[in-house]
């Protein structure tokens, strides 16, 4: 696809894990050791957010100020607030070169540099998606098995930039998601 070096590195990590498992099925512990898989998954969720925005109900009056203390907006209890997840994830103030796919943003060395509440693939706080850990584990397990068996390539139907084809609040391009799965030789 767009980043063959990412796919190659991910494949190498999956091969190492498969060798360590020595024929046993994938385990939670093995998935948790796949650091590059975690970085790729996190960057995928940043670049192609599942939800375009998050909504919240303001529970008490709140004055929003800038870094200098100047009043920007007064929220009242009962106000509905929308947080633009896609906007935050693609803002150059928070993610340098946001249009580039760079899993290293989420490396051990770099992830602490991400400003809190600017990366919200599953929300944050008490209303954070309750199934986020399960969803991440399922996605990583699926990618592990897929990357071991297939090379993922662009197909004739693959949309160049899926974000240009979004309608509504989710990334759901007209015509669907299309890729070509090329079987790897044993």
Automatic annotation (TrEMBL):
Stored Gene3D superfamilies: Cytochrome P450
Molecular-function GO terms, alphabetical: heme binding; iron ion binding; monooxygenase activity; oxidoreductase activity, acting on paired donors, with incorporation or reduction of molecular oxygen
Protein name per UniProt: (Mediterranean fruit fly) hypothetical protein
Pfam families cross-referenced by the UniProt entry: p450
Alphabetized UniProt keyword annotations: Endoplasmic reticulum, Heme, Iron, Membrane, Metal-binding, Microsome, Monooxygenase, Oxidoreductase
InterPro entries: Cyt_P450 (IPR001128), Cyt_P450_CS (IPR017972), Cyt_P450_E_grp-IV (IPR002403), Cyt_P450_sf (IPR036396), Insect_CytP450_Detox (IPR050476)
Membrane association type: Peripheral membrane protein
GO annotation, cellular component aspect: endoplasmic reticulum membrane
Residue sites binding heme per the record: 129
Location within or outside the cell: Endoplasmic reticulum membrane; Microsome membrane
Homology family: Belongs to the cytochrome P450 family.
Keyword Oxidoreductase: yes
UniProt keyword annotation of Transcription regulation present: no
Obligatory cofactor(s): heme
Functional summary from the UniProt entry: May be involved in the metabolism of insect hormones and in the breakdown of synthetic insecticides.
Organism ancestry: Eukaryota, Metazoa, Ecdysozoa, Arthropoda, Hexapoda
């Amino acid at each position: 696809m767009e980043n063959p070096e990412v796919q190659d590195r991910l494949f190498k990590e999956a091969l190492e894990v498969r060798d360590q498992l020595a024929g046993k099925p994938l385990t939670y512990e093995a998935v948790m050791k796949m650091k590059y898989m975690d970085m790729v998954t996190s960057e995928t969720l940043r670049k192609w957010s599942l939800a375009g925005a998050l909504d919240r109900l303001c529970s008490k009056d709140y004055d929003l100020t800038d870094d200098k203390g100047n009043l920007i907006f007064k929220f009242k209890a009962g106000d509905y607030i929308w947080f633009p997840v896609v906007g935050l994830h693609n803002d150059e103030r928070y993610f340098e070169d946001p249009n580039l796919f760079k899993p290293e943003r989420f490396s051990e060395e770099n992830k602490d540099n991400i400003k809190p509440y600017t990366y919200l693939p599953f929300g944050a706080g008490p209303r954070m998606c309750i199934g986020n850990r399960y969803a991440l584990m399922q996605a990583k397990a699926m990618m592990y098995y897929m990357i071991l068996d297939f090379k993922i390539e662009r197909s004739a139907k693959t949309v160049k930039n899926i974000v240009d084809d979004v309608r509504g609040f989710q990334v759901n391009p007209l015509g669907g998601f299309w890729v070509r799965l090329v079987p790897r030789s044993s």
